[in-house]
Amino acid sequence: MEKQSRYGEVTEALMAGLTGVVGESNILTGDERENYSRDEAPGSDRAIPDLVVKPGNSQEVAGVLRLANEARIPVIVRGAGTGLAGGAVAFYGGIVLSMERMNRILEIDRLNFVATVEPAVTLEELYQAVEECGLYYPLYPGEKSAAVGGNVATNAGGMRAVKYGVTRHFVLGLEVVLPTGEIIETGGKFVKCSTGYDLTQLLIGSEGTLAVITRVMLRLTTRPGQTEILFVPFHSLHEAIESVPDILARGIIPVGIEFMQKDAIRLVEEFTGKEIPLHDHEAFLLIIVEGTDSDEIHRISNDISEVCLSHGAVDVYIPGSERARRNLMEAREKFYPAAVHFGILDITDVVVPRSRIADFMAGARKAGEEFGIPLVACGHAGDGNVHLCLMDDGSGTPPEKAKELLTRIIEVGVSMGGTVSGEHGLGSIKKEYLALAYDESGIDLMRRIKRAFDPNNIMNPGKVFDME
Ligand SMILES: Cc1cc2nc3c(=O)[nH]c(=O)nc-3n(C[C@H](O)[C@H](O)[C@H](O)COP(=O)(O)OP(=O)(O)OC[C@H]3O[C@@H](n4cnc5c(N)ncnc54)[C@H](O)[C@@H]3O)c2cc1C
Question: Which of 95, 143, 169 has the most ligand 1 atoms within 8 A of CB, as the residue to mutate?
């Protein structure tokens, strides 16, 4: 992508100003910038930023933004760089604002069940700190090395959304810095709020295009008594998916209901070298349940087994030991790294009403066959969010052909009442599909909101949508 002429150049005066704000050692200008040139999106183009700047606190973020705004320099905020939408990539040059130094857990408030953290705290660090206080942060958006700020900026979802929802359901308040350098606080340690526009919710999922998130207040809960996993093989994906509404209709709310197809299981087995139980069947549900004690777990597991068996499940495997549970979770978690290892052209993040997953899958498969591109499926059956990997079979599929198939699959999802992205965001890779989900007046309103926050369009330009 060309650098837009409307943006300024990094001058000696700007460098001097930035050095005054963060110190010379927190500005990278050499080869190390390569480490900040891409995220984890498949086939994402790289772009080396002019500078990587690492602020240590909100005042420093404000100082950097003020200078960048005056000089019209793009600012691309970066958490852990695990995003899957090409969101933290500096396609217009400018400053990658790496939040890595802002990694402190500021408070775990046991009375109010609130964790207040800086944005670069990783999920792994958050889980540990919260657990040490006897509390629980129940969301698990797939990658523990992701940063909390990145989770908020993408409204990350993951495998526990059926019971707990997504990141936006756990954010109580934020501190953000606007491009002008103003520091704004939103929300607070309260659960109810009818006080003016809800800026917290507007900023969640804004993918670094409106402001820099510098502090996050997260709602916590109590630890569940026990967790169990049910691994259920079926003769077909259709049977597997058809079980899901019935499980929920019984009033059982599992933490998550994931599905994997045989191809996905094979891929993971080859990648990890570990055999997955009952692996010869066509489709699988992996159902995570929580209960206060083993009696409750037993009752829930029985109810779920009954529903699945009535839908043609071949068997219900309940691991019983922590190690076996861990192995099953690993099988699901390793899907994306395994797919990347064997070569993928792209990945979908379409979400459809969960009653339409089987129809969506059939439509997507048909399109895949038409294009001659193998698809491997895995996803969140309990919330309708389907990740289909467009596999690179080594036959030299041109990228345009893969793109055409991706477009077709997204159109199939949208036509079934779904939308483009359930959890990864649009970033640079999926922004062109926003028009499938919103009409022009909706997108125009988004542009007006963007201008109100960021009139010079310095915040992550070219992401989510283009300004003209
Ligand atoms: C193996 C694997 C599995 C994954 N599984 C899931 C999953 O199950 N569910 C899911 O939702 N995601 C999943 N992801 C995607 C990824 O982990 C999430 O998108 C995560 O939220 C990104 O966090 P990050 O810190 O790495 O963000 P980055 O990649 O650094 O940035 C992502 C976006 O957020 C913006 N941003 C980051 N920090 C800030 C900030 N402080 N202020 C403002 N904007 C900011 C960036 O500009 C960019 O647009 C997975 C990724 C991988 C590699």
Answer: 143
